Each structure stands twice: as structure tokens, then as C-alpha cells.
Amino acid sequence: MTDAVRRVFYVSDGTGITAETIGHSVLTQFQGVPFVTQRISFVDTEEKAHEAARRIRRVGEQCGMRPIVISTVISPELGAILADSGALVIDVFPPFIDPLQKELGVAWQPRVGQAHGLVNPSEYEARINATNYALSHDDGVDLDYDDAEVILVGVSRSGKTPTCLYLALHFGIRAANYPLTDADLDAAELPRKLRPHRRKLFGLTIDPERLHQIRKARRPGSRYATLEQCRWEVQVAERLFRQESIPMLSTTHTSIEEIASKLMATLGIERSML
To answer: What is the CATH number of the domain that holds 68?
Structure first.
């Protein structure tokens, strides 16, 4: 356990999503170490690399501790510039290059932004359509669930919307979500609109204390945000999930990537990342 905050930079010659995803997965294995993370995207020229290195170096000097850089920058020349920042630079790609060259019998040809050329137009369109679907079926706005592949159910602020958008953006999955209202919870039975789609349902729950914190920040002083209300809603929602044999997962200490993976495995949805 340490109180020293470590600054982490996800640096990429593209969007930085890969660096951030991998880095986040690794950093969560170090419990008790507080991290502050920041993404630096599109570092694809020497000028940008020098600017990123200066920025990282300044942060290290200000906090008195060496920053950590998780890098997916392809160019060795740009990588060398980043190394001059004085940070601990961890390159994501090098461990894969040599084994793949030997296996494939093809030499590595580093080209900045090459990953963008792998985008399949039909997969991209599926991702856009799924995102539009998630937005139009958010929080019970549209209750026509015939085309949904998954319907997330849970109390307000339990993480349904971000999970739906993640499933859409990364996997092209048409995900809707239904918020359990006081009326639904008082009825103590599955809402009528959800009954025909039971096999698509997945419940999200959350620790009442955490839910109280989230709601208090959103609507301070309201009954909606009281700890008593949060405890009651979560308790009744979980009872409903068990009663109706709906699989459920707590989002309290679970990353959105893990929520999506467990949900897909539980519901038998097989989809590679688009």
C-alpha cells in the first residue's frame, strides 16, 4: 500500500484506445497504488513526440516521481524520443513482433496508422447502427425490443447506459436498457414489456453506498439520492433478478470491459472486437 500517486500516460500514434485498454488491465493488478492517467493521442511526427516527451518530463519534475508511459507508437525513432522523457516507457508491440516474424516468415514493416487500414466497412456500419440503437433505446425511451440482442435491467445509475454504448462501439451489439422504477419495484414482478424478451435480459446491480455517492453528486438533497432509497431499490432489484432467474453482475468494482465480457459469455453472444 502506498499513498504516492503515480502518473501514467497512454501514448499512441493513433487514438490511444489500445494503449489505454491494455494499460488499464495491467494497472488494475496493482492494488493499493493510486494512479492518475492521461491519454496523448496521434503522436505521429517527431515534433509531436518531442512535445509529448517535454510534457511527460514536466509532470515527472513537478510530482518528483518518474511517470509511467504505456506506448503503442510504432516508429522506433518516435519511441526513442519518448524514452528521453525520463519516464518508464513500456512498449506494447515489441514482444509480439519477433515471434510473429518467425512464424509468418514476413518481415515487420512499421507504418504509422496502419491499423486503420484493417477497418471493415460492413463492421464499421454495424457498429454505427448498434450505437444508434443503444441511444434510441436508452433508459426505456423506446420499448420495442424485438431487434435487441441484449437488454440491461437495473436501477437508475447502475451503469446500464455506458455498458450499452461500449457493447455497441466495440462489438456492434444492439443493446437496450430498461430502468427499474419505483412502480416496477413495488410490483415485485418482471415488467410486462420485458417478459417476451426474458432470454435477452441481464441485470446490473451496484453497492448501495456507491449508488448513494453517484446519485448525491447528480441530484443532491433529493429522496432519489438518499442512502435509504438506494438500499431499498438495490435490495428489491436483486430479489427480482433472483426470483426471475435473471443473471446479474455488480458494477461496483468491475470495469466496463469486464462487464461486457462477462455479459457476453453468460448470454452466449460470440462477437470479436470490431
So the answer is: 3.40.50
